[in-house]
Amino acid sequence: MPRKIDPIIFVVSFVFVVFISSIYYLTYQDKQADNFSSYQENFEKLTLLDTKFENFLMRSLYFNNYDTITTNLEGFDQTLLKLEASSISNEFDSSFGAILVELRHKFQLEQDLLEYHKSLNSVSVNSIHYLFDLRSTINNSDTLKEKQKLLIDELLFSLMQLFTGIQPNQITLQNKTRQVKNYALSLNNDYLINFYTQAVLLQKNMSILLTSVDEHKEIQLIQDITNSINLLQISYQKQIDSYQYLNVFLAFITFILLLILILLHLKSLKIAQENLSFRFAVENSDNFIIMTDTKRKITYVNESFQKNTGFSKEDVLGRSPNLLKSNQTKKSTFVQMESSLQAQKTWKGEFINKRKDGSIFYVASSIIPIIIKGELHSYLSIGLDITKHIKQKEELQEAKLELETKVHIRTLELREKADALEETLANLKDFQKQLVETEKMSALGSLVAGVAHEINTPVGVSLTAITYIQQETQTLFKSIEEGNLRKTALNEYVSSVTAMSDSIYISLQTAIKLVRSFKQVAIDQHTEEKRIFNLKEYCDEVILSLHSKFRTEQVKVHNHIDENIHINSYAGIYSQIFTNFILNSLLHAFDKDIENKTIKIRGFIEEEYLHLIYEDNGRGIDKKHIDKIFNPFFTTKLGQGGSGLGLHIVYNLIHHKLQGDIICTNTTPGVKMQIYIPMSELTYKKSISA
User: Fold this and answer.
1) How far is the C-alpha of 613 from the C-alpha of 672, rounded, in Å?
2) Backbone angles phi and psi of 331, in degrees to 5
3) In Å, what is the CA distance from 679 to each residue of 470, 566, 611?
């Protein structure tokens, strides 16, 4: 007959297997905890190094220690290599393989960004040194005026502000750069040309350097690292939870096996041998094992209990387990425990206990009432020290909270920067609006100056004629008083007074016409109400208001607008359009060497549009500028009377107020402006002729 297996040996063997399994999982759990800490530390190191790189880019971009940041990036590379060589994908989550590949790719992008940053920085440093050398040469030159040298110093000062991180006024910087360019081209001075070229190159490099932080943010390496830390923490938390369930399960299995072993021990004839086996299993268990009698007095503790609590058997035998109380365990835990034990049911829960030295530790415990032959014999308590796992969980929670706090602070900082940018943009729009209004007043000022000059002539003629009549009248009265008045003298007086009266009448009629024209144009420019007017006659009034400027520049203006066109529209807009076109031609188109300076204005109805054509025979517009002439602040005469807003105002009035379109083209010679205004925007009536 086959030999029967001794049940005690079987149970002890099973207990031993469970015990070895518990040790294995505890050891594996400790290893996983160490690996988690190591991986988390590496990821946090990557976060710190990436933050240092971002801070490096956000600091002054021009005198940085590239050796330090290069060392930091090498540290980043070494840390990333450790993670790539590790088993993190197998130990925690398989997606870490793809994550590390992405981190390597983005890290390479940051390395490329640093090298690009370094090269631009080097070029910028060389440019600033070269500019200082050129400045010394220019200051020693006798061919340049002090005003031009002073301009070089002012531009160099603005460039140094830009180079050291102080943002200069961009409009001022661009104006000074253009002035240097104009001087360089007009004087054909190689030093000035080189100075202008290097200044433009430095501004371009500084602009590219300032975008380095945005390029780094677009890489989003810090976000990937943060996601990796979160994924690692989630994976580890899942492992901790599974380990806790497994440990509780093993503890329960151990408890069951120990209970079976105790029952077998009580029933066995070999009590001494069975007690020895039981004590061996219990004494060598990693679990706390406490036996108490029915009055809750301790009758037995194992070696693990003594090592973990610091209490010896002599300290605890005959005493209540309450000596381990820390007063930190919830009262509800004890209430539930008492309820279960009084019902002679097993209770499971967690205690926060206190060691002999006063230190706190956490225990996952099971308390089982031992019933023999229907009567309560004793209580068996099996506990597992889970302090390390609780601490890690708390640390994990703190780290998560700290990370969320950092993200929140960073979000607030970015929001503040966004608000500041919006405020700056609003200020710039207000400033632009003020400049546009100033330009409109400038056009009206030109009308005022022209009309005032034109009125002086007829008024002067009238004043001279009246003075002559007064003198002749006094002479006539004197002859009458002396009694020597002759008929011929009287006839000459009457003839002279008649001629002078006609001259005064003609001059005053001219002045009245000028005032009436200017009054209507000025009113139209300051009102946005529609009125019906003859387009050709209104254009003549604008031309008359600017006549003094034509006479000074010897320019002939021909108005060929169809005289039968009457429209109901904004007369002030047409005044501003014609005025800006004419003044623009006088300022930009006609050089001194151009003969027969001519401006032609045509207007007619074409299908569903009012078609206006403005032409001059000036020097035209450079091809590289023709696409920019309607841009705000664009002018080739900056500092010489041009503001860059005249044609921009015209463009906006035509597009937004009249819902029309404007096209600019070069002719041979001169420039042609064509305006198309839909008749749906006009109330048109015309005396049809031809």
Assistant:
1) 7
2) -65, -30
3) 57, 12, 10
CA 469 to chain centroid, in Å, comes to 78
H helix runs in 600-677, sequence order:
646-652
Q: At what angle do helices 487-525 and 571-584 cross, to 10 degrees?
A: 100
CB 282 within 8 A of CB 302: yes
Asked whether the beta carbons of 178 and 203 are under 8 A apart, the reply is no
pLDDT in tens, 270-319: 555 555 555 666 666 777 788 898 888 888 888 888 888 888 888 888 88
d(CA 627, CA 664): 9
Q: What tokens were used for 395?
A: 């640390």
**325-382 pLDDT, tens digit each:** 888 888 888 888 888 888 888 888 888 888 888 888 888 888 888 888 778 888 888 8
Number of Cβ within 10 Å of residue 232's Cβ equals 23
Please give the radius of gyration of the chain, using alpha carbons only, rounded to the nearest integer.
49
pTM higher than 0.70: no
Walk across the sheet containing 598-606 and list its strands.
556-561, 598-606, 609-616, 671-678, 661-666
What is the number of other CB atoms lying within 10 angstroms of the CB of residue 487? 7
From residue 272, how far is each of 15, 207, 518 by CA, in Å? 19, 90, 130
Token pair 């160099």 is found at 156
Three-state DSSP at 348 gives strand
CA-to-CA distance for 98 and 235, rounded, in angstroms? 16
Asked if 354 contacts 360 with a C-beta cutoff of 8 angstroms, the reply is yes
User: CA-CA distance, 69 to 117, in Å (whole number)?
Assistant: 12
* C-alpha–C-alpha distance, residues 105 and 441, integer Å: 58
- Give Cα separations from 454 to 268, 516, 572 (angstroms): 136, 13, 21
Nearest Cα neighbor of 229 from 69, 404, 109, 107 is 404
